[in-house]
Design brief:
alpha/beta, 2 domains, 5-stranded mixed β-sheet, D-Maltodextrin-Binding Protein, domain 2, 10 helices, 6-stranded mixed β-sheet, single chain, 294 residues
Length: 294
């Protein structure tokens, strides 16, 4: 009788050990998974994107970034908002970024040519309208491009580094109020260089270093009229739209975006751009600030 008892006891011990090993294995797998998951979450949270963007995007893009951080944990460094030409100058000077969003095709063309961005990631993100504005206290209520260019009003436009200023000069050239150095007119011009001399606007134009400056000149009454984007009216306030520049008077106003060539976060940067033009919450923010998807 003792021999069978030993067999039973040995069997019980074997089963107990097997169960113990099984439990240890499960425990180890669980602990491994638990350790791995926080590590993955932590990696996601550690991604910080640096964006270089056109001035006119500031209010809208800040809100969109906040929403993305809330949803994904990805954070953003101090986004640099500058005139599009200045953004390229910064990248050319050695500054680093993950994403560039400009306010004109021309400046993005330059970024591609100079190797600042990955051309394969480039796409047109938004469209905009060029409008004529006056201060909210102005008596001016309606204005055509021809009237604005008549020489009867002081006007403000952006300088050569400000795409809105380039578009304004293109439009003004179609009514003889700005002369391109190469003799081109309207959409055929790049809206840079050139002169107001010898036109009805000679001595009547103030050029700003940003669309914010241009809006402020109209708001304070330093000028009668200013040429800005429709989205700038939402962004800055204190100005009112008194006219819209005909779409065929200047190049199509688009905001191209691209992932920067030297980024270490190319995948995360692309994911943000894809999300920014597809997420319902992001789309609502863009719309509220006057931007339309291209």
């Amino acid at each position: 009788m003792k021999k069978p008892m030993r067999i039973v006891a040995a069997s019980v011990c074997a089963l107990a050990l097997a169960g113990s090993f099984a439990m240890f294995g499960c425990s180890s797998n669980t602990e491994s998974t638990q350790e791995q998951q926080p590590a993955q979450e932590q990696a996601s949270e550690q991604v910080e994107l640096q964006i270089f963007a056109a001035n006119s995007l500031e209010k809208a893009l800040n809100e969109v970034q906040a929403l993305y951080t809330e949803q994904t944990g990805v954070t953003f460094a101090d986004t640099q908002y500058e005139a599009s030409g200045t953004l390229n100058e910064m990248l050319g000077g050695g500054a680093t970024a993950d994403i560039e969003i400009t306010a004109s095709k021309g400046t993005m063309d330059t970024a591609v040519k100079e190797g600042y961005v990955d051309e394969g990631t480039r796409f047109d993100m938004f469209t905009n309208d060029l409008v004529i504005v006056a201060g909210t206290d102005s008596d001016i209520t309606e204005m055509t491009l021809e009237e604005a260019a008549s020489g009867n009003y002081k006007i403000a436009v952006g300088d050569d580094n400000v795409p809105a200023g380039n578009y304004a000069k293109q439009a003004l050239s179609t009514v003889g109020a700005w002369v391109d150095d190469e003799g081109t007119v309207g959409p055929e011009s790049d809206g840079k260089g050139g002169t107001f001399e010898g036109t009805p606007l000679e001595g009547m134009v103030t050029e700003g270093k940003s669309v914010g400056d241009v809006c402020s000149y109209a708001n304070t009454g330093d000028v009668d009229l200013a040429f800005v984007y429709s989205s700038d009216v939402y962004r800055f306030g204190n100005v009112k739209i008194v006219g819209t520049v005909p779409a065929d008077a200047c190049k199509a106003i688009v905001y191209p975006a691209a992932v920067c060539a030297e980024t270490d976060n190319a995948e995360a940067a692309q994911e943000f751009l894809d999300w920014a033009v597809s997420d319902e919450g992001a789309l609502k923010i863009w719309q509220e600030w006057g931007f339309e998807l291209a």
